[in-house]
UniProtKB/TrEMBL annotation:
Signal peptide extent: none
Protein name (Swiss-Prot/TrEMBL): Two-component system response regulator
UniProt DNA-binding region: 119-213
Keyword entries, A-Z: DNA-binding, Phosphoprotein, Transcription, Transcription regulation, Two-component regulatory system
Listed InterPro entries: CheY-like_superfamily, OmpR/PhoB-type_DNA-bd, Sig_transdc_resp-reg_C-effctor, Sig_transdc_resp-reg_receiver, WalR-like, WH-like_DNA-bd_sf
Entry-linked Pfam families: Response_reg (PF00072), Trans_reg_C (PF00486)
Any single Gene Ontology cellular-component annotation: cytosol
GO molecular function, one term: phosphorelay response regulator activity
Species of origin: Arcobacter acticola
Length: 215
């Protein structure tokens, strides 16, 4: 799972990054709002945003994130107690708000809950599962390595278990905001279907796809 972290306090930034990397997640961390703003379309599974950061504030970044990602969790981590800013954070689409100072374990709990990830492996059914850190699907003991786009697509499906994932969402998440034709998306779906042969990926009236899982 790829995590986006914006925190201008270098010590806290490094501590959060280390915590999640020890869980096997890939963390892309930023100290500057402008740099973070220019990298939000790189297929992230979760966003952790401070508000008061140099150059571009976290609320502006949050609004931009919601232009690309409808359902990807966003957690605001901030020391502000201004009610107006807290209200704006939720109205702009944040999923949770964690006031500083906080225990990093508390942030970890929120991220795992919001992303619906109980551990590093997610079961499709009793004989197949996906390992986030290794980007490998195991079915009946056979391991199948995923390409970068296949891995991003599986992450997107698992963030939206048994829910519609639109073509637009796939384009923004898997192609990182760049244009992708319907044919390119369908080709990727076909490739993934060959590897996930114990689960069901179904199309929905040219709107997108569902990944049905038992767990």
């Amino acid at each position: 799972m790829k995590i986006f972290l914006l925190e201008d306090n270098k010590t806290l930034n490094e501590a959060i990054k280390l915590k999640f990397e020890l869980k096997g997640y890939k963390v892309y961390s930023y100290l500057c709002g402008e740099e973070a703003f220019n990298n939000i379309t790189n297929g992230f599974s979760c966003f952790l945003l401070d508000i008061h950061v140099p150059n571009v504030d976290g609320l502006k970044i949050l609004k931009k994130i919601r232009e690309y990602y409808d359902n990807v969790p966003v957690v605001i981590i901030s020391s502000t107690v201004e009610l107006d800013i807290i209200k704006k954070s939720y109205s702009f689409g944040c999923n949770d708000y964690l006031k500083k100072p906080f225990f990093i374990d508390e942030l970890e709990i929120k991220v795992d809950k919001l992303c619906n990830i109980p551990d590093n492996e997610v079961l499709f059914d009793e004989k197949s599962f996906f390992n986030f850190s290794e980007s490998i699907i195991t079915i009946d003991g056979e391991k199948k390595v995923l390409t970068e786009k296949e891995n991003l697509l599986v992450n997107l499906f698992l963030l939206n278990k048994n829910k519609l994932v639109s073509y637009e969402n796939i384009q923004n998440y898997v192609w990182k905001g760049e244009y992708a034709s319907i044919d390119a998306i369908r080709t990727l779906i076909r490739r993934l279907r060959k590897k996930i042969d114990k689960t069901t990926i179904k199309a929905s009236s040219n709107r997108g796809y569902y990944l049905y899982v038992e767990c």
